Amino acid sequence: MSTAATDEPDAVATASGDWRQVEPLYLPVTLAAAKDAFHERGFHGTSIRDIASRAGVSLPTLYYHHENKQGILVALLEAGISSILNRVRAAIADGDTPRQQLSNAIETIVLHMTADLQLASVGRELRYLDSDNPHRQHYVGMRTEMEDLLADVLRRGMASGDFQIPGDVREVLRYLLGACQEVTTWYRPEGARSPAQVAESYAATSLRAVGASFDTTDHT
Amino acid sequence: MSTAATDEPDAVATASGDWRQVEPLYLPVTLAAAKDAFHERGFHGTSIRDIASRAGVSLPTLYYHHENKQGILVALLEAGISSILNRVRAAIADGDTPRQQLSNAIETIVLHMTADLQLASVGRELRYLDSDNPHRQHYVGMRTEMEDLLADVLRRGMASGDFQIPGDVREVLRYLLGACQEVTTWYRPEGARSPAQVAESYAATSLRAVGASFDTTDHT
Amino acid sequence: MSTAATDEPDAVATASGDWRQVEPLYLPVTLAAAKDAFHERGFHGTSIRDIASRAGVSLPTLYYHHENKQGILVALLEAGISSILNRVRAAIADGDTPRQQLSNAIETIVLHMTADLQLASVGRELRYLDSDNPHRQHYVGMRTEMEDLLADVLRRGMASGDFQIPGDVREVLRYLLGACQEVTTWYRPEGARSPAQVAESYAATSLRAVGASFDTTDHT
Amino acid sequence: MSTAATDEPDAVATASGDWRQVEPLYLPVTLAAAKDAFHERGFHGTSIRDIASRAGVSLPTLYYHHENKQGILVALLEAGISSILNRVRAAIADGDTPRQQLSNAIETIVLHMTADLQLASVGRELRYLDSDNPHRQHYVGMRTEMEDLLADVLRRGMASGDFQIPGDVREVLRYLLGACQEVTTWYRPEGARSPAQVAESYAATSLRAVGASFDTTDHT
DNA sequence: TATGAATGAGCATTCATTCAT
DNA sequence: TATGAATGAATGCTCATTCAT
């Protein structure tokens, strides 16, 4: 009752392998409304009435679908994190070398951000999920899993000599993911750059950031 | 009356040249309280009563010193951006080559983030400043000035051959600044890494990200 | 949702023809409470909490039924003006000569004042309705309509020779209506004079004020 | 400390005999500010800060001159009522017959209203003077004195046969004074009619209202 | 005289949430 | 499923008033 896919069983599932998807995720109307509202006004700046009226449903109807305001946030957070986790898994599976895997992963992460800015930016509102909310662990677990997948790529790249990272690998990973996360704050779909362009540029910059040597053959 | 330095005339001024400062900025008690509250709960999640009681003052006293809640946000945003702008100016002035200048700049930005996580994270709440608030322009102007300073460093580095950036320079700059901004979401002062360590590591990663060749002499 | 007749569809309608009615208008409980409060303390002197507690409802319930404090004032103003407009229409229709029509009209106006002092006195609070409030025009339009009806009676009385008004007819009308409006400031139901007595006395004085000759047959 | 004439001993005194005065009363700056504010927003709609800022003085300065907000209201009410009482006394003394005396009295009352709409309209705010305020009695006493003067004129006019009032004399007096009081709600100095014109027209209508016979020689 | 700074109490309004139907 | 109607608690903000200087 408080999961993302109330109305449509598999509404939020991303087909695995489809990691270059650039379309927004399909979400039930209430979640789509909440996503937009949270993006524009933040969790605390959004009222439950905002959401209901955007969605065109009554307040009790909203409560029928979601336990409470936090439940809506949970549903969105889970929709976002599971989508990106699936994407990253597929992107890594689709690469043969650490270099290609990292490039693919950064690309799909940035595509995730640009494809659905609203949903991606909801990730920031995790701070407002009560720390004793049981779904929080689940979310954090998925995010950690994604980070571990990437950390593994970095470590294997170091081992193979593809990457040259003098300091703390985990801190560099934070650097890369931070850069990607911030895309939601400046990217505008109506702007000059397409999602694919940004994604490729970010992948290239990330490769340089981990010291991937330049002579190596291309990653596309 | 709505500026940051109500109680102490020069409270928020950072001594120029002091760009390796790792101490939090001094702020009047009401702003210090607001800074902590906004960091923990966000702008909309913080009530004016939260701020007043943290500051140990009454509600009307708070309003005597600040026009309204947005005015408090403005004061904090301006304190933060002017501090970082001063730091970046000094850091660039203190370097002889684009390479050293970029390294210094990233270092001071990360030190700014780690020295006062609370203040630095308030930058994110800019979204909640009414778009017709006259102070918004001022803030954005200062931020743009800082970005221009860094873009100039990047361009000069490209011209001199120090940096190798295949794509859009401005987008790479966004990448770097994004990575730095996100420091506030994961850094904890009680953790293993000191501000100086993180700052240096981020500077090094940033140099790699802009393709600064490794044989060049060090930047420390 | 912001009209006078929330609870009972036709709550505020006055049966036309019933222009000698001396009973207060029926109003939903929240409006009845507001009417009394506004009468006693004025619009600005009345708090929304006063109204809610007089009505025995919670604050949010009050807001469920009325947009805001101004909306409550609007509902009362419209209830009053439409009642008096209907009364005046009926009173004039019920008279054969200008003399009888004016007498009837003044009588019903004074009866309106004495029948529901509280409601009638709310008319004074029109000044506190925001000048850009769309309902203001509607109210003023109805009031003007009533004044036009009376001005017409006066003009016809002049033409027929029933009335002798040397100066500006409109100014004399203001004189008459001013005298009637002020009834709400001194009349007390527990006093010596009945509504009917005051109404007749005011009608007679008004006839004299417009120079209606005394030999004509009576109007009662 | 709470009377009208704090700054200037005789500031609010009207020279007796000058009952055709059409200039606003001189008032100290704080009272002039309060008068305008009360006129525009009413007593409860006006804040003490409104008054101070209109007057260009600080809040504590305002409190130095007046005990509190009610004290300001008292000062204005007394300024108004004593002015009108003096005028009415002089106007009656200046007439030889009841007819002329009533005409003069109505004229001066209307001139009082039009000469200083703001001050005259403050009379309505008497309702908001605490019923246990000692100044209230004084005010009401003066107003009663004025009404008694007029009632006496009416009675003498009845005795002499000048006036023909079938019903309650006191009620007719209320009628006349009501009409005059309401002048403040519609009169605008920038309008077509001069104060003198309105005053004469109201005097004539009042004479008719009390049944003063038409063949008698003029009252001007 | 004058005022900068302070405050307890109150303001209109909205919040997330619930319940009877 | 769906909703009209309700509410306790909180929101941002202002009130009249005071006091130390």
Termini gap of chain A: 42 Å
| Total strands of chain A | 0
CATH topology title of chain A:
Tetracycline Repressor, domain 2
Order of helices and strands of chain A: HHHHHHHHHH
DNA-binding region (chains A, B, C, D): 47-66
Pfam family, one (chains A, B, C, D): TetR_N
Keywords (chains A, B, C, D): DNA-binding, Transcription, Transcription regulation
Domain HTH tetR-type (chains A, B, C, D): 24-84
Structure description:
- Four copies of one chain form a homotetramer.
- The first copy, chain A, is an all-alpha fold.
- The first copy, chain A, has a single domain (29-209), classed as Tetracycline Repressor, domain 2 (Orthogonal Bundle), CATH 1.10.357.
- Chain A is 61% helix and 0% strand.
- Chain A has ten helices and no strands.
- Chain A has helices at residues 29-41, 48-55, 59-65, 69-93, 98-115, 117-121, 134-160, 169-181, 183-186, 195-209.
- Chains in contact: A-B, C-D.
- Chain B binds a DNA duplex (21 and 21 nucleotides) through helix 3.
- Chains A, B, C, D: Residues 47-66 bind DNA.
- Chains A, B, C, D: Pfam families: TetR_C_24 (PF17932), TetR_N (PF00440).
Task: Give the secondary structure arrangement, pairings included.
The structure is a homotetramer of 220-residue chains.
Chain A: H1 29-41, H2 48-55, H3 59-65, H4 69-93, H5 98-115, H6 117-121, H7 134-160, H8 169-181, H9 183-186, H10 195-209
Chain B binds a DNA duplex (21 and 21 nucleotides) through residues 47-49, 57-61, 63-65, 68-69.
